[in-house]
């Protein structure tokens, strides 16, 4: 992608979202099969493989893979599931662990050489996950609190003066049932999109000023570009982990809210 | 909230709940009442209700968050 831009013009041009995210099909003619689709599938297979390898035949003295995966499991259980689900945490670990690992590997694809594309930077992927969690949240809420009770608990929090409900219920409704799933998906998407743009921009600066048009004045800019690429790659890895954690944590929070109404 | 639900392990949940819910409430408050104000403005050919609605929405959302999470 970037090589095309470099050859086409004589001046430095920052990579555009169209170049970075609008990728051609891998097999000509099969329009849906693009790089993010391939990476999403590979990530799913990787998650299945890792969990299978680690937990299908667990040993009392864990091997290397089981050890690493158990750290991941304990992290998700203690930081994601238990604070929000309490005694129900273990029942939901299958979903939450898969969700965390899948999103994390989708994200980390953004800095893995050759792959170098965070899957979640196409909003369709986080939207499907967030949509599934939303359906699950509403279903669980209706199952555990009754179809009417769920919406009643959601829109009429106890302990407020009666006339105030008229004013506050629309806010609760919009916040819980419309804004929540939207921000759940957009938070992940926007972070991955922006991170990929930043990395592409700085590596483009380094490539252009050090390799394509090396001039005495430009070399300094190129060096800054390379240094910033390295710094932002490290920062991006942190964000990728953080967003995977937040995505799973919010899912856990929504599920917990549907299982036990409080407030 | 009942005594049984006020165990220490629920504190983290309440805190996170508040941190994620409050911005969402503020946004929803502005959207609902700003939206109503905007519609009123269109209907009446005025321009005052939109900002009033946004402020009202913020105040109401703040009140809702205060009543829900300040316990």
Automatic annotation (TrEMBL), chain A:
Signal peptide: none annotated. Keywords: ATP synthesis, Cell membrane, CF(0), Hydrogen ion transport, Ion transport, Membrane, Transmembrane, Transmembrane helix, Transport. It is found in: Cell membrane; Membrane. Gene3D superfamilies: ATP synthase, F0 complex, subunit A. GO terms for cellular component: plasma membrane; proton-transporting ATP synthase complex. It is a multi-pass membrane protein. GO terms for molecular function: proton-transporting ATP synthase activity, rotational mechanism. The keyword Transmembrane helix applies. The chain crosses the membrane at residues 37-56, 92-117, 123-142, 163-182, 188-210, 217-235. InterPro entries: ATP_synth_F0_asu, ATP_synth_F0_asu_AS, ATP_synth_F0_asu_bact/mt, F0_ATP_A_sf. PROSITE patterns: ATPASE_A (PS00449). Belongs to the ATPase A chain family. Key component of the proton channel; it plays a direct role in the translocation of protons across the membrane. This is ATP synthase subunit a. The lineage of its organism: Bacteria, Bacillati, Actinomycetota, Actinomycetes, Streptosporangiales. The gene is atpB.
Automatic annotation (TrEMBL), chain B:
InterPro entries: ATPase_put. The chain crosses the membrane at residues 20-40, 46-66. Keywords: Membrane, Transmembrane, Transmembrane helix. This is Putative F0F1-ATPase subunit Ca2+/Mg2+ transporter. It comes from Nonomuraea pusilla.
